[in-house]
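dumping this here before i forget
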Amino acid sequence: MTAQEMPEQAAPSRSREPRDTRGKLIRAAEQLFAARGIDGVSLSEIKRAAGQRNAMALQYHFGDRAGLLRAILDKHLPAVDARREVLLQQYEDSGTADLRSLAAALVLPAAAKLADPDGGREFLQIVAELLNRPEALVEVVVTKGSSIFAWRRLVEPLLATESTTVLHTRFTAMRFCHAELAARAAARPRRDDRLFTSRLVDLVTALLATPVSEQTARLLHERGPKGRTRQQASTR
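structure:
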């Protein structure tokens, strides 16, 4: 090795260092957020778990906890959206109204993360927490350009009117779907998730197809417009 060669070989190692640090912080945060909850872990713990001695490393790369959470979601959501967009395009091309196909378009892209060794299972647990909080952080998961908007548009004509305008059955289906996926992700990995995933599609289909009962319709009528507004705010 000559003196001229040495700087050229050293440079890639230095240039990779910030990227490696960022990746280590994301991976540590995925694991800790999934295990203990997004608010149950300090940023100092994440830095230690990532092996970072620099006190400002996390702030430098992400700014704060919200920025770190955004980085985790940005790592995984593009693949989920891409899979869902393919399924939705296939649905539209078929020209057939099929609620189970739309249920599958909700479930399958996220379920694929069960087989992702690079934080996929942790991602599912984090998303489930965001959607199933008392005040769900939907806007954190469903950002501008999300495939969920196209999914909602396509599934709406197949649901009872009250299901979309007041009861927000689509959001309930999303919460249920991700809660089940999170439970699966938190358990020990299985050799095959196909049966679980197929049954989850069945259950989401049934949830979406559930009619509004006479009793529920009567209670909605009794609440009147103001009551419906409150119901809408509470169920999204």
